[in-house]
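Is adenosine-5'-monophosphate-propyl ester placement plausible here? Inputs below.
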Amino acid sequence: MNLKIASFEEYKQVYQQSVEQPEQFWEGIADNFLWRKKWDKALEWNFKEPSIKWFQGAKLNITENCLDRHLEEKGDTPAIIWEPNDPNEDHRILTYKQLHDKVCQFANVLKNNGVKKGDRVCVYMPMVPELAIAVLACARLGAIHSVVFGGFSAQSIADRIIDAQCEVVITADGSYRGIKEVPLKSVIDDALVRCPSVKRVIVLTRSHTGVSMIKGRDVWWEDEVKKVETQGNPDCPAVEMDAEDMLFILYTSGSTGKPKGVVHTCGGYMVYTGYTFANVFQYEPGEVYFCTADIGWITGHSYIVYGPLSQGATTLMFEGIPTWPDAGRFWDIVQEYKVNILYTAPTAIRSLMSFGDDMLKGKDLSSLKKLGSVGEPINEEAWHWFDEKIGHGQCPIVDTWWQTETGGLMISPISNVTPTKPGYATLPLPGVQPILVDENGKEIIGNGVSGNLCIKFPWPGMLRTTYGDHERCRTTYFATYPDLYFTGDGCLRDEDGYYRITGRVDDVLNVSGHRIGTAEVENAINMHSSVVESAVVGYPHDIKGQGVYAFVVSPNKHESEELTRKDIMMTVSRIIGAIARPDKIQFVSGLPKTRSGKIMRRILRKIAEGETSNLGDTSTLLDPGVVEEIKSGAL
Ligand code: PRX
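Reply from A.M.:
I modeled the complex. C-alpha cells:
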C-alpha cells in the first residue's frame, strides 16, 4: 500500500478501510519498510493490562531502514543539513553514506565501551549532528537511548538516569544557545554524584570550555573515535531486534510529581513515524525539510531523526534559537537552504510575530511549499500570520496533534489533501480512532460536541509501558475510562466532524509547547527553605501559550519579598530546570482548601486568569476569607 494519500476522496476511503480492517491496513503500510523477517501476527492487544504487540515475530533494525537501505540510490543525498548556532560558523552536510559511516563508527565506540543490546544510555547533548549519530548508534546496537533535553537541571538528569539505571552517558563539554553557553559536562558531573550506575561518560568537544575529566570514567568522543579508526573496521553490523524490543525511553511530565519514562518499541514506532512523516508532509524526494524542535523532545525523535531518515529525506537540524542574532534567523535559514517544508511550534510563531514584519523584509521564502505546527493549540492570529506572511497563502498548514505517548502524529491534516481550518487539527489520520467521552466515560456521539479525547483502538506508534513501572502506565492512561487510551486533552468536534484540541484537562501545563506537571513545580518550590506550601496553576501567556503562576505560603521570608522570589526561582531552576521557572509568584497567607484539605485549584486558576468576578461556590472552603486576600493580591 502506498504511504502517501493523493486526494481527500482517497483519504476517506483509506480511513474507512483502516477502521474496518486495521491489521490489514497496517500490514500494507509496514510492507514499505525493510524487515529482516516479517511478522507472524500483525496485532495482539488489550487496553486492560495494557498489552500491545505490533508485528510480533518480526525482526529488524531501525537504522537499516534509516541508513543502509538508502545507500545504493541515495548515498550522496544529504541526510542531515546542520546549521550552527553562530551563523558565521560553517554549516555541515552529512550525506546518507557519511551518516551511515559515522553511526557505524560511533556504534563501535559504544561497543568498545561495553555497550550492548538492552543497555540504557543517557544522551545529554547540544543540537549537533553527533546527537543524531549517538541516538542512531545506540539503536544500531539495540541499546536503549534516553535523551534528556539540554535545558534540564542536574537533579532532573539524575532522576532520569537512576530511574532507567543508565550505565553510560553521552554528553558534550558545553552547548550554545544564542549568546548563552550551557556547561553540559559540568551539569552532568553534578548529576552523577547521585548516580553510581554510570560507569562511562563520553564527552564530545563542542564549546572548548574547560571540563573535569575523571580517570576511569570520562573519555573524549574524539579519542574514542580515533581508537576505532586504528582498529580499522569501519563497519558495524546492525543488531537484530524483535519488533517489540525497546527502542528508547523518553521522560515526560504528568499530573504527579515524578516524570514517567515513556517506552517506544522498534517495529511499530518505525512504521508509524515513517508513515505519518511521508503522508502528512507529502514528502517528495529532493525536498529540504526543517523541523525546529529539539531532539530532546518527542518531536525531534520522531520528526527530525527517525521519521525523515526512514524515508530518505533531507532533514535540517538547527543548533540555535529563533531570535538570535535576530528574530529573522528562521527566515535566513529557509532562504539559505531553500527549505521546502517548515515544521515549527505556535510559541515560536507568536514570538517571531511579535518582532514585527520588518524581520521578514528581503527574505526569500519562495522555496516553502508546506508548513506545520505542533505542541499546543495554535491561536487564529498566529495561524493567519503563518499562513499569510510565511506561506504567502500558498502553503497548506498542517496543525498536528499528538503526544510523547502517541509516538507520532494522530489528528492532523494531510498537506494538500485535507481542507484545513485555522485552529483545527482537523481529522484523524488513517488507523487512528479518536472518541470523545464525558466525565463518566460515556461516548459522546455526533457532531458539534466536546469532551475528553480518548483513542479506542491501538496504533503502532503508541507507548507500550512506562519504564520500570507498568502499573503507572495502566493507571495514567488506561484506567480513567475502561478500554480506552485517555490523552489528558479536552477536545471539540465541530459540525463537520473536525477536531479542535482545547488543552489539557489534567494538572499538566503546556509552557512554550513543553509539558510541565504542576505537582513537579510545587515539589520544587516546596524544597525552598522558607516555603511552607504552594499551589501552581497555568494562566494565558501571549508568547508561551501558558505561563506558570505560583501561589506560595512563606511566612518567614529571608530578607525581602523580592529576594525570596528570586531564591524560589533559582530553586526551581536547580531542581527541574529553567523551563519550569514560575512567571509569577504571589505570596499568600494560606491556600483555599476544602474541609478535607484539598486545594481548590479551580479558584486559583480563575484568579490567575484574572477572572475574579465569578469564582463559583466558595462556601465549602475551610477559610473563605483567604480567597478575598488572594484576589486582592493577584499579580
Ligand atoms: O495538550 C496537547 C498538546 O501537547 C500535549 C503533548 O505534549 P508532548 O507530549 O510534550 O508532545 C508535544 C509534541 C507532540 C498534548 O497532550 N498538543 C500537542 N500538539 C498539539 C497540542 N495541542 C493542540 N494542538 C496541537 N497540534
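Short version: The pocket of adenosine-5'-monophosphate-propyl ester is lined by residues 252, 298-299, 374-377, 399-404, 425, 487-489, 501, 503-504, 510, 515 (CB under 6 Å).
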